[in-house]
Design brief:
Elements (H helix, E strand, L loop, with lengths): L5 H13 L2 H16 L8 H43 L15 H23 L17
Helix pairs in contact: 1-3
Length: 142
Amino acid sequence: MYRQAPFSRFAKWTAHAAGHPAAFGAAVLIIVVWALTGPLFGFSDTWQLVINTGTTIVTFLMVFLIQNTQNRDSTAIQLKLDELIRALEGAQNALLDLEELEEQELERIRKEYEALARRARLEMRRGHKGNVVQEIEIGEHA
């Protein structure tokens, strides 16, 4: 296994543990216990503050841990997709690192792919079974 920084290991472990059914069960159990203690504490402001503070703290910390895990996973997926594009004969290498383009450029390329898909579906309806490779304009426009 690869050696990871302590925070990365902690974030990955925490995100995995938080997604486990037992974590959900524990959260439900905490809520049930809290709700059952309501009459004991007269449904006071302090009783409500306990659950509000606890959930706010957990949510706040989990956002950062899960975001760290998501960023790492997203980067790994992008690199794997880049490698597939690079290695596949006929694929457009201009699509490598596409996620780094500006939103407007991504939208333009997405529209070109939508048009390509529409043309392909139209060809299929006309009885053409082949997958005709059509080039699209990937390069940036000024």
